[in-house]
Design goal:
The protein is α/β, with parallel strands linked by helices and about 300 residues long. The protein has one domain (about 1-295): NAD(P)-binding Rossmann-like Domain (Rossmann fold), CATH 3.40.50.720. The protein contains ten helices and ten strands.
């Protein structure tokens, strides 16, 4: 996500690269307090994108790591930004913060109506706690912190590691490799009945930057397309676009995750006129092409 934000700032908005500070995890570990102080030094605006993330299997294997790393990075960076008198702090949250059985489409006002889906609850709650912190810092310190809730992201430069990737890059890799090897079937977790909404990474970058420019209120804002697709439909689309001709087999012993995910995106439209431009067909085509060019 970060590289797409930088691309947008430089190529669409004309920001000089010298004006952008980009701390990398391999250089600055935000779990360390002093690194957070260093990261915000002489900075006017912070867009906090750093996160420890993964798919369902990764969430089940490392729940403690996901909770601790995400809450500590966010809390320390926000506090460091406050102490450094940063003018604006943009906290990027997650759709995983929503309750498991939120009525679709999810409205921002539904955020506290229940417990998140169990497989990603530690991650979702850690991120949701940062909304509480953002609103508390606004109330006590008059700090301009905004909180955005992007839906599942995908696109160029995604993580295609099958142990930690999300659903779209995992499917792209599985189907592409299976087609290349002439395999007769691909096994996918769950029943395929769960639904998701996906936001192409270039649209997400545009939404985050537009909110940074124009939005200054305490209420969280969804970023998405408002369009829902089942995992079964998604798998069929990816199979078609990667030329996989075999059978899709559903491993129903594995979890589906949250039953439905679809966002009400009217607040983003009303508050800062954001609408996603890339439909799923276009986004999948671009992502598959990028993967094929860059995979070994």
């Amino acid at each position: 996500m970060g590289s797409h934000i930088v691309e947008n700032l430089v190529h669409k908005r004309g920001v000089a690269p010298s004006q952008i500070s980009i701390p990398r995890s391999k250089e600055i570990d935000l779990i360390v307090w002093d690194n957070c102080r260093q990261a915000v030094k002489n900075v006017d605006i912070v867009i906090h994108l750093a996160a420890r993330v993964g798919g369902i299997g990764f969430n089940q294997k490392y729940p403690g790591t996901l909770f601790y790393d995400n809450i500590v990075m966010g809390a320390q960076l926000m506090e460091a930004a406050r102490l450094a008198n940063v003018k604006k702090f943009v906290q990027v949250g997650t759709v995983c913060a929503y309750p498991k059985f939120t009525p679709a489409p999810f409205k921002e006002d539904n955020l506290w109506d229940g417990y998140p889906e169990e497989t990603n609850a530690p991650y979702g709650i850690a991120k949701k706690a940062l909304l509480v912190m953002a609103q508390a810092y606004r109330q006590q310190y008059s700090m301009n912190v905004i909180y955005l809730l992007p839906v599942n992201l995908y696109g160029r430069k995604d993580n295609f590691d099958l142990e930690s990737s999300h659903v779209i890059p995992a499917l792209i890799r599985k189907f592409t490799e299976a087609a290349k090897r002439g395999e007769k079937q691909v096994i996918i977790w769950g029943t395929g009945k769960a639904s998701r909404e996906f936001l192409y990474v270039d649209d997400a970058a545009e939404g985050i930057i537009t909110a940074t420019e124009k939005y200054n209120k305490p209420e969280p804002v969804n970023l998405g397309t408002g369009k829902e697709v089942t995992i079964k439909q998604l798998a069929a689309l990816v199979a078609e676009k990667t030329d996989f001709k075999g059978e899709i087999v559903w491993d129903t012993t594995k979890p589906d995750g949250q039953p439905r995910r679809s966002l009400d995106v009217s607040r983003a439209k009303a508050e800062f006129n954001f609408e996603a431009k890339t439909d799923l067909n276009m986004g999948l085509k671009a992502t598959i092409e990028w993967y094929k060019r860059h995979s070994k």
